[in-house]
Structure formats: structure tokens, C-alpha cells
Amino acid sequence: MVKSTAEVKLMKDEYAGFYSCGLTMLGSSTMRRFTETEKTENTLILKSEDGLKLKTETRKSPYSDSYEIQTELINNSEAEITMEMITSFLFPDIKADKIHRILSFWSAEGRVKTDVLADLNMEHAWNNMAFRVEKFGNVGSMPVRKYFPFVALEDSETHTFFAIQLYTPASWQIELTVRKGDVVTLSGGIADRDFGQWMKTLKPGESFTAPKAVAAIGDSLEDVCDKLVKAQHPDISPVDDRMGIVFNEYCTTWGNPDIDKLKKLADRIAGKGIQYLVMDSGWYSDCGYWWEYRGDWSINKKRFPNGLKELADYIRAKGMIPGIWFEFETVGYKAKEFEDSEHLIKKDGVPLTIGGARFWDMEQTWVKDYLKTSVTDRLKDDSFGYIKIDYNDTLGIGCDGEEEPGENLRRKVLATQDYFRTLKKEIPELVIENCSSGGHRLEPSFMELASMASFSDAHEIASLPIIAANVQRVIRAEQSQIWSVLRAEDSDSRIFYSMCATFLGRMGLSGDIYDLNDHQWELVDDAIAFYKRVAHIIKDGKTTYIGCDAKSYNEPTGSQLVIRELGNESLLVFHRFAESCSMDEYLDKHALDLGDYEISIRYGKAAEDFSAMAAVITR
After folding, report:
1. Bridge partners for 137 per DSSP
2. Residue 171 and residue 173: Cα distance in Å, rounded?
3. Element (H, E) at 150
4. pTM exceeds 0.85, yes or no
5. What's the mean pLDDT in 131-152?
6. What is the DSSP secondary-structure string of 548-584?
7. Which of 53, 153, 208, 236 could bridge across to 96 with cysteines, CB 3.0–4.6 Å?
8. How far apart, in whole angstroms, are the C-alpha atoms of residue 586 and residue 582?
9. Contacts of 107 (CB under 8 A, 6+ apart)
10. Does residue 36 surpass a pLDDT of 90?
11. Domain 8-231 carries which CATH code?
């Protein structure tokens, strides 16, 4: 049984010392106030004499072999208190010699970074006095930037992995501290006052619950990641229960959709087994470039003279669900709403402006009413069943408000999440795609509000299958919508390369698909048939192996193999990059024995560099 404890640091209390101030707030005098008063199988309660209660619950997840952790501070004292730090989880005395983190930048999500703790100088001092600290995280409203809110510790001697995933939509931190002996204390939660300018005041009778965390133990990185991912419990739309294929026209029109182009697309893909046809950015404002006019959600009558319902009805008549793109939190610098400073997020008393964009204050009733008219009613009135929710920059350290910048930031992002819930309440069958310049919101609390997510903005680059494989470690494959952008000039190998990547998640198509010839369409049709054959493995299987020779995302070399198992079936997806080898050579090189098996179905041909194949094998 995994059991977490917790710590809190209150303002004005003594810091730990021993060269730790500014690195960690653990070990402060605040914790000397508390004594253990109750300990059960699931709950640890610490109380202070003046009425503070620090409660940590660790319960078995109902969805996987993992443990859900929730920490709460209750102020039953007679005085107001201010927190500078509270952990979501804290595990002392973990035996480990390696740390695994998952890196992320725009169009470069999911790279695993493994460090030996000794290489990080994380060995205890000779007299067990001074702290060693490795602290990492993210500051801002894009919670997956630089790092995913994830960590795994490995004990090489016992081949044991201990991993944590934070459910945190804004600034967060994870800390490793070493002080006494060859053991690690692992903690994490909201980015504290030092790291994220966060403080929270509780009046008498008030309480605060830290973001949820989920922990798992396993015998490999893939094993613990599978347990953490399966613990996620997304609110999937009732119409999105069959791994439906998405066609998004962004890489077709590049932000310039119109009624004729979309009708042409609908005609071309009708009857192909595609469930959703999504119109991306550029359908709004008569004025110009889509990026500059975000926030002006008036219909572009030059492109859609009869409104958008004509398009939605046309798509439904072709047997597909119509989708539409919004970035409803953001206001572009040419939109008239850009000057509406009363309702925009502020920093230092003026509207917070980042890269030519400002942001609605999602806590305000006025903003909620505006979005009801501009977004919710648009979806209802025009009969859209799918919304792609994009978000293309971060608020940074924080903003103005009733409390400190980090807490104000947290509240704004929680208000955004509340609007996700409002959309689902108003339109129960709505399919929500969680997108933030691709993958900047691929964390569990956002993923649980959506049916699927854009795995990346890696539309056509060579590293696309590498990213698609890597993000399987942190989000459910059934939610990971992977681009396959098809062009008229694509060779057979290029089509195999693009289509095989979609077998690592949800198939998403785009590109100049109406220009494909009959032979190219036959390859795409075969891929769609293969995808539907393996959809149950993608949805319910376990990824047991991700092996990739490539180090560079920009110029990948070598080969990649991903194995996902369900029952006696395994889905193998094999990609070749530059200077690659065949699959048989790859298996020999990495000493992989697949045992006795039969190939029941295959797609593609990995015969040269930048080609791919996929197969289902039955043991």
C-alpha cells in the first residue's frame, strides 16, 4: 500500500536552514506545530494545538493499479493564516538511483530524460546535514511546457519504479530532496512562493485542497506509466465511443476555410469511415488574418455568406459530425475586444499582453455571458457537435487579483476548466478536443474534461511518430489525436510513414486529400480499415515497449518500434528514419524476442528510410 504524507509552510514561520532557503520550503518550523492524531489505512491527519488540520488521503484508484492522493489544510484556528507552500504528495525515504522525467516543448513533446542521481550531485552530505535539492516544474497557464507534471524514480538494484503524475492545470513543482542517507524524499504540488509566486490565505473555518496526485509502482517505466494513464478517467462524449476518425482541415486551407472548400472536402471524404469533419481557424471576422482577430467571433460573411449552419447541415447530410475551432480565452490585437480592458486579465494594473494577445478574465460573469452568446449558442444554433478548444500562449508567473499572482493565476485557469464543464452540461453529446498549440495542456485534469486532445502541432515533420509514441506514457492513447497530413506528391512510403503513426493513438487526417489519385486513396482506405481492426488494442491495450534509436527530433536516425498488447494480440508499429535498419535487424540489435507468433494482419511496408509498417501478431 502506497501512503503519502504532506507538508505545509506558513508565512512568517522559520525556514529549514542548512542552505535550503530558496531551494525548498520543506522542513520548516510550521511542521513542528503538528502532531499525528489519526492514522488509518487511507488517511493521515496531523493537528496543531491552535486548530490547524492537515489531512492526506491515499486511496486505491478504481480504474487501475495505482493510488489517488488528496491533501487538504483546514483552518479551525481563530486566526487568519497564509500558506507559502502545500504539497499534494510527500514520500520520504525512497530508495532510488535514477530519475526519469518527460520533457516538452512546442512540437517536441514527450522526450524521456533519464538522470543518475549521483550525476545530479544528489548524494547525501558527509555528515547528513545539508540539503541536496532537485526541483523542477512549470510556471504559467500551459502546464506542459518544458516538463510534463510527472516523475519516476528507479531503484536499479531491485528493478522497481515509483512514479507520480500531478493533476494540475497551472503552475506546479516536483522536488527531490536528499539529506540523510542514500534515500530520497519526493514531493510536489502547486508551485510555491519561491517558484511560482503562490500564496493562499485561509480565514478561520476555511480550507484548501491541493491538486490531486496519482502514484504507481511497477517493474518498468512503461509499466508505471500505463498504470498512471489508466487511472485517468476522462469525460468522453457518448457519441465518441468507437475511436472515431477526425478530419481537420487546417493543413488543407491553413486558416482560410470557406463554404466551397469545406463542401468539396465533405464530398471527397463522405463514406470513407470518417466520423468528424472539423473546420479550424479563420471562419470568423471579415477583416483578415485569423491569428490577429481571435476573440471576434462574428461569422466571416465573405467566406460563409449564409452563415455556418449551412456548412454544419451539409456535413451532417454526408454522414459526419461537424466540428468548429475556438480559442475562446484569447483576444487578438486587431479584434475590437482587445481594448475591453475591464474584462481582460491584468498584470501591474494594465491588460496582460503577450505576443499581440490578451486574455479574458474567465472568472467574470460578464465574460461567461459573452462566451455563452459567442461560443455555446453558436454550437447549439448552428448544430456543431465537436469543438476544438485551442490556447496559444501562457499567462506566465501570474496576474492581478484578490491574492498573490500565482493563486490568481490558478483561479483563472480553474475558471476555464469550469467553462469546459459548462459546455458539456449545456450540450451533453458535445465532443471536446483539448488543444493548446498542440500539447501544452496534455495533463490529467484537462484531459479528463475532453474526449480527445491534439497530441502536438507536429503536422508533417519527421519526428511525428516519435512524439506520438512518447506521449503514450502520459495520456490515454484513445485520446491522443495524431495528425496524418496527406499530399498529392506523397510516395507510398510517405503515406505508410504518416498513416502508421496514427495507429499510436486516434487517427486524425488532413491535407490535400481531394488531390490524391486512386492508388493513394487505396493506401489510405487500407489504413483506415487497419485502424478500425486495431482500435480495441489502441483503446484498451498496454504499451509494453517503446524503443527509439533517434536522439534528434529534427534529424532522426535509426528506427522505432512500439508494441501494444491486449490479450493474446500485440500491435507492432515500426518506423524507419535516416540511416535505418529493417525490423528484423532492429529486433536482433536490441535482443528482442517476440516468441512464437503469427501475423494476422499488416499494413504498410518498411522497405527503406522514412517508411513504416504495422502488424497485429497473435501468440
Report:
1. 173
2. 7
3. strand 150-155
4. yes
5. 97
6. E----SSS-BSEEEEEEEETTEEEEEEEE-BT---HH
7. 153
8. 6
9. 438, 456, 457, 458, 461, 467
10. no
11. 2.70.98.60
The 10 Å CB-count burial string (b at 16+, else e) for 146-168 is ebbbbbbbbeeeeebbbbbbbbb
What are φ and ψ of residue 167, in 5° steps? -100, 90
CB atoms within 10 A of CB 301: 10
User: What is the C-alpha separation between 167 and 52, in angstroms, rounded?
Assistant: 25
The DSSP bridge pattern shows strands 321-326 and 276-279 to be: parallel
Instruction: Give per-residue pLDDT as tens, 354-385.
Output: 999 999 999 999 999 999 999 999 999 999 99
pLDDT digits (tens, 9 = 90+) for 467-522: 999 999 999 999 999 999 999 999 999 999 999 999 999 999 999 999 999 999 99
Using the 8-state DSSP alphabet, how is residue 255 labeled? S
Cell digits of residue 431: 465532443
Give the integer Cα–Cα distance in Å for 573 and 518.
25
pLDDT band at 37 (very low <50, low <70, confident <90, very high): confident
| Residue indicated by cell numbers 506545530 | 33
223 SS3 class = helix
Q: Please measure the distance between the N-terminal and C-terminal CA atoms of the chain and give it in whole angstroms.
A: 34
Dist. CA 325–CA 226, nearest whole Å: 31
CATH of 246-454, one of 3.90.1140.10, 3.40.309.10, 3.20.20.70, 3.30.360.10: 3.20.20.70
| Domains of the chain by residue range | 8-231, 246-454, 548-618
| Distance from C-alpha of 183 to C-alpha of 428, rounded to nearest angstrom | 48
Query: H or E element: which one contains 277?
Result: strand 276-279
The 10s digit of each residue's pLDDT in 159-170 is 999 999 999 999
Dmax over CA atoms of the chain, in Å, equals 78
